[in-house]
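Subject: 1,4-alpha-glucan branching enzyme GlgB

B.,
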Amino acid sequence: MAKKKEQENTQQNPLTGMETGTGAAMNEGAVPDQKGRGKKSRKAEGIATVEVQSGAAASPAKRGRPRKTDTSEPGAAAQEVMVKPTRGRAAQLTSAETAAGQSEPKPKERRTPRSVAQQQAQEVAFSTTPAPAMEQPQQEQTGPVYYDISRLSEFDIYLFREGRHFNLYEKLGSHLMERQGTKGAYFAVWAPNAEQVSVMGDFNSWNRESHQLQARADGSGIWEGFIPDVQAGMLYKYHIRSRYHMYHVEKSDPFALRREKPPQTASVVHELHHTWQDDSWLQQRKAKNGQPQPYSVYELHVGSWRRKPEDNNRPLTYRELAEELPAYVKDLGFTHVEFMPVMFHPFSGSWGYQITGYFAAASLYGSPEDLMCLIDALHREGIGVIMDWVPSHFPSDEHGLAYFDGTHLFEHADPRKGYHPDWNSYIFNYGRNEVRSFLISNALFWLDKYHVDGLRVDAVASMLYLDYSRKHDEWIPNEYGGRENLEAISFLKDFNEAVHTQFPDTLTIAEESTAWPQVTGKVADGGLGFDMKWMMGWMHDTLTYFSKDPIYRRHHQGDITFSIIYAFSERFMLPLSHDEVVHGKGSLIRKMPGDEWQAFANLRALYAYMYAHPGAKLLFMGGEMAQSTEWNHDSSLDWHLLAYGYHAGVQELVRSLNRLYRNEPALYDKGFDPQGFEWIDFNDAHNSVISFLRKGNRAEDQLLVVCNFTPGVHEHYRLGVPTGGNWVEVFNSDDSHFGGSNFHNHGVLQAVPDSFHGHAYSLVLRLPPMAVVYFKYQP
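Prediction pasted inline below.
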């Protein structure tokens, strides 16, 4: 537990336990006077001080918090070497990481953040040459840390402070390098309110004092240094001694590329190395950018998709998933996989949404390269990858971002803006430019280094509103007296612009549940800039409707038709997500009323209606086989259910719907355009029947969709259609292959010139029980 003293200047919120007051908020995010308190710092006078231990045997490496080194102990003499810096050229350095990266092919079409930064540097006339914190003389260095090299230029610092540095992962954190022929690692961390920052780890027996970093003289609050002989795979943390309250703490590296396996929390010195084999996919992604295309997403939790019961019921590793998941998803016809958060999170019960390592893959399932292997395998099978991204909140774990340097650095100091009551977590300070640089750099990192195709942004609604899930006296209005979080709004716009500038062929998707306007509108037009938004209203109304006994549905026709009123106000994705099958809500099949046959017929009708509705689609794992129980993150899906006919039938239905969705332009050409939808009849509440047309870009690309939401059969059901010609049944959720009663419209149906429903022609159909039928126009 971190040590804190002199807390008389700090008050504690009785509800949240967060510190407020002069002590906690003092100079938040600012770099304090370099003179410090009490004794004048030698570093402030331009003198580099390093300690060299000699005359004592190295103690065995211990994890956790070892006893602080006491240099006055007998047998543990220490020398203090003071070196006066001189001006001159910084020592030449080479990056092992850069050299290794040259051998890895990268897609030519990718516009890297660095090229944009160089262009901006020319505009503001800043140097892009790395500038060290202080330069060492040419004489032999005797200490363990060197301060004469850096990865940060004057322009880097400028962008960082402006909130516009979007590739910080190339600058901060740990990086294997060479200095004058000596291999080691460069470390850099942002801690502006620290009076001392040290690197402790395997290489120094977890000594808190021996390897101290140095604060840059530019006031950026970044501490840096080069430590010789540090190798890949070594564990480390930062020991941070704050300027306030005598607070000191061990922190994981916010920019660490790899982390220990939980429950351990140390960072790992690591370089990313993977030879990508997805050039064909990336070229295809670029070619399709901006064109209408189907989006059918399979949402997945890595730890519970499939498990190894013979091996203590452990989850599959990334590489084991790479052997099974791509073929499975391709066979079912989904276009994308969406992973629930795979960033490092110490508590599995958070499902990944309480992240402490934003740049590190969840180590429970393997290494960063293992995750890259999984993404690569999916791409080679033509499957896109979307990742959940969580910029809305972060946990209070001591090793994480919270109270990072003895102040509320990444979060707001006032709990009315910095604490989230729903998730017992902290809220990022979106008004702090350095935090914006951190978050946007993280988003681009996954698109850049992991070739991710899209980011689904979690809990956007909680970011937009200052009073989200708060009582009237638990929030602070904005500068205009409103409840809109202006800083978060600005951040989301900057995030979307950065993503679409650097990686224009990728997606951003908002989980946003309110009526906030223009979530998917262009930033230039006042929108937030997302590509899609989850249609939470559709999800709620649809599940409410389907949960009712069919005999009562005639009184709730509006529940199933209302979504079309606003279906084209945004670019919507229809989600049947993990949130709907947990916390006592029951699985989807258990929401359906009636006996076994009716329940499965209801579920088949739900899926068929969903795929016919305008918008992209998302289905959580297990839904494709009508999982009987609620989702449990500690258990595998119930794969044995596929041995039973009804469950196998639902899987076959999902496979057929995905195939139809891909092959019928009427279902996606104008999926976000009101011109692609036309009601035939939504007024037959007595029979609980609705009918509509879906239209593509060509006149012949038309589908007539008829939904019968009761178990009654209609032998001669007349519907108006806009044109004469032939119509053919191309899909029927009541097919026996899906577990239905096999009640079909056989052969070709001829539209006759008999006006009905405001159209000059009409068809007479057979409507199967509790089913959805698609008919295709044949001119």
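The radius of gyration is 30 Å.

T.
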